[in-house]
Amino acid sequence: MASAGLQFFAFMLALFGAFGDIAATLLPNWKVNADVGSNIITAITQMQGLWMDCTWYSTGMFSCTLKYSVLSLPVYIQAARTTMVLSCILSAFGICITTVGMKCTKLGGDTDSKSHTCFAGGVCFVLAGIFGLVPTSWYTREIISNFLDQTIPESSKHEPGGAVYIGFISAGFLLVAGVIFCTSCFKKQQGAWIYPPKQQHFPSTQQENNAGYNLKDYV
């Protein structure tokens, strides 16, 4: 019962991680630049994401521009696009697989089949967490290196936006959920691997003696 409750807790973590992963992929505020200027009326906030760049004015106007050209983007943005999409796909696969393999569901067949299915879902969550953690770390490194570079003007420097923090938290949720699913299935099989079922072996001499007694009865 405790293992089923732990699996349900891991499933909820994975569900929040998957939704956060999708939100971080689509949000335009991966890095933010606030330019106040000489007057508060002319203050603007520039946000850049994986798929679009947006500008918010203090007057309430909001405009976005899509990034159509892929080859013109920096390498870290191209890699972030690819890995974040893979993370979303793997987390969706993991949710579907673990739904079948969890103990609290009546799908997936016998206990051994559900255990193997649950382990496969946990591996998907771990891979999704890794694919989500790599681009957020790389993106944050680029933002910090550009911010500390003295040759770059202050107007071109940015800070990490909310999408980066959502990506970090979602990757952590997916990693924790994947580890819980994998270890819960491993603990279940560990006893069978260490203590295999004992088989009864009868000595061959005893079988021969019994055969001899049977032959004597017919003499």
UniProtKB/TrEMBL annotation:
InterPro entries: Claudin, Claudin_CS, PMP22/EMP/MP20/Claudin. The keyword rRNA processing does not apply. Residues 1-24 form the signal peptide. One of its GO terms (molecular function) is structural molecule activity. Keywords: Cell junction, Cell membrane, Membrane, Signal, Tight junction, Transmembrane, Transmembrane helix. It is found in: Cell junction, Tight junction; Cell membrane. The keyword 4Fe-4S does not apply. It comes from the Eukaryota. It is a multi-pass membrane protein. GO terms for cellular component: bicellular tight junction; cytosol; Golgi apparatus; plasma membrane. The chain crosses the membrane at residues 75-97, 118-139, 163-186. Gene3D superfamilies: 1.20.140.150. Claudins function as major constituents of the tight junction complexes that regulate the permeability of epithelia. Belongs to the claudin family. This is Claudin. It comes from Anas platyrhynchos platyrhynchos (Northern mallard). The lineage of its organism: Eukaryota, Metazoa, Chordata, Craniata, Vertebrata. The gene is CLDN20.
